[in-house]
Amino acid sequence: MSAASTDHWVRFDPAGCAHSSTHVDEVPLAEDAYRRAVPKIADRRREAAAGWTMERLTKQAWRERAKPCFTGSCTHPAAPEPAGEIRGLTVRQPYAWALLHGKTVENRTWPAPAGLVGTTVLLHAAKALHREGLRDPGSWSWRACPPATPSPPAR
Description:
alpha+beta, 2 domains
């Protein structure tokens, strides 16, 4: 009986930044790991043409090459987006409004992916509301931010 592998399949952009990772035990073939990370064949073909790769890394190599990318501490430049495409972020209201009107406090407990920092992102306001956010604006954790527009004078 063989021991479980500690190797990972890791998807790298052309600049060398890791974007996805999966255990070799879960997905033994590189093609299947790539299919899991990028389900649409057109997207896989576009990435392959742009120089993206899927590599098998040992546990130590994963710690050295991939972990910094996933923890936001890598120094790779952002991968260029293909012409005519832009990444999008869907955010429920009232948070989409807050982002457009000066919300600067970060609520996440994890860092933004290094490959996306400084790039253009399309903000999409979801149809669904976050009802708790509407009931309690204090839960937004952005009270210290100045309002984007002055409040109307009280009458």
